[in-house]
Structures
1.
Amino acid sequence: MREAAKKGRPEFRNIGISDITGKYRMPPSAIVSILHRISGAGLFLMLPFLLYLLQESLLSEGSFEHFRGIMSNVFVKIILLGLSWAYLHHFTAGVRHLFMDNHLALDKDTAQKTARWVLVVSLALTALVGLKLFGVF
């Protein structure tokens, strides 16, 4: 590495998790990319459990009312709101990636703007879901 510094070449270092949180300021596109992966993994891991809950709620009217009562719990609503955010963020970031796959919004400035829009739109839609979930409208 010392030889690279002498010749004026860039020095590349491995970055750990502790470095990301303190030393480096990540651009919005990096944040959206990381959240896209986390939300996708979370949705994938929750899918069997959610399908099981759906199956159980469709067995009879009694089981539906049982799960309806569970849904009235505030803690369960917060979990559902988190899952809603994961889905909405993953969806909006996926739409952004579809545009980028078609060679649109690839330059640095536009990519940063679309990343910010993904964050704003996913949070706004999650706020709407939260308002509906908690009975505001």
2.
Amino acid sequence: MGYHAERVAYLRTFAPWIVYAAFPTQYWRWSALLAAGIALAGIAHQRRAGRDWDALVLEIGSAVFFAVITVVAFADPGTGLHDYTPALANAVLAVVAGASLALRVPFTLSIAKQSAPREFWEQPLFIRTAYVLTSVWAASFALGAVALAALAHAPTPRTVVQALTFAIPMLFTVRYVARVRDRARALAARPVSRG
């Protein structure tokens, strides 16, 4: 269940952002509206599943961002802000990820809890892993925001940077979690020394 469930949880969490990025730029109004709808539906689904509000920091940030972008996009479709929405999206994600760290509820912790057995949730290694992963995601989003602002008028490189800001931390997450699990298994398998 582990790896597959984690990947599904990450895809579900980032679905609004993926949908928004996947639409051609000329349809940004509709992609923002669809992303806002997906974010709100995700929050409703998670709340029905019993998730607390503090575990939905990223989902709430996503819904607010896409609601604001939708209003701006429909109010002024030709706004110069449009070219900078990928950079703004990454900046918002960086702020939300950073806020989740500051509030001591790293957003990756809530994602991990969707696939990890409850007995692991309070273990220091589990919690520390969430802090490391959230920090990597926050750094990737922050660097992506800067790069995307610089590439605001260059669609092809901008698309590559957008993909990398998600792909790099996702790859890191998969590898880091595998390494942590291997280390935890090795520690559990060691014989207990009797003093």
3.
Amino acid sequence: MTACIRAATPADLAALTALLASASLPVADLDGQRIHFLVAEIDAQVVGVIGVEALPPEGLLRSLAVSPALRGSGLGRQLVQALEAHAAHHGIEHLTLLTETAASFFNRLGYLQQSREQVTDAIRATTEFRSLCPASAICMHKPLDPARSASGISAAAPR
């Protein structure tokens, strides 16, 4: 089965929230206008989600989740790659993320660990950075290649 990765719409909010909650990821601030979500869909069902809190030229990678039955299938990697292209297309030059469980996964995709003190003020001011993600979470960073920007995916924050 091949997943279709597309921009999330307001109609996807319940499904993407449920998927994030089932993965124990933050859902308290999903109504923010700066969070762009992409979803992976198979047979009209949301089976993966990833988001970016856009603060150009910076972005905070938010909440990668894949349905348990599809973990290990490469869908997570596809979602990250689609999000990186989407972010670069929207003027984001660097992505930062916080993770408690997926540091090795993101490291394989080129993200490097950095101290929280190295994070820009814009990222530090986000709700996820300030309060939703624990201080024990690993902070990681990756510069994006603007040549990889995608024009085929545009995302709207679900409301």
4.
Amino acid sequence: MFKTVLFPIDQSREAREAADVVTNVVQKYGSRLVLLSVVEEPVTDVPSPDPMKSSDLVSQLLENARSLFSQQGIQCEILEKQGKPAFTICDVADDIGADLIIMGCRGLGLTDEGANDSVTTRVINLSPCPVLIVP
């Protein structure tokens, strides 16, 4: 049913909690798992304290996540992309033929439109496939 599952991750607590659901779904359906993390485009040349704007920190986050899934017997692919998170997540889902996106109810980011429009809400509205939101 879910041949390919996309799991976009950031450093949020919600993403860590969603990992349990991802593990269950991938094991139950024998799915291909693709981990994605988006390095947000810097607005200025000034270094940002936001960990999702650092390619090095995002790479480390992906490797740590791969290790955690590997301990559960799950092999996964990792992708690191740069761009606006919601659009990038949906583009990757389309590119890899994802059957399901699983993500936390609220990550670290809000869209440029402000606090009422989270990345999660944007993904729900733009996704080419079903989105499972983990509270």
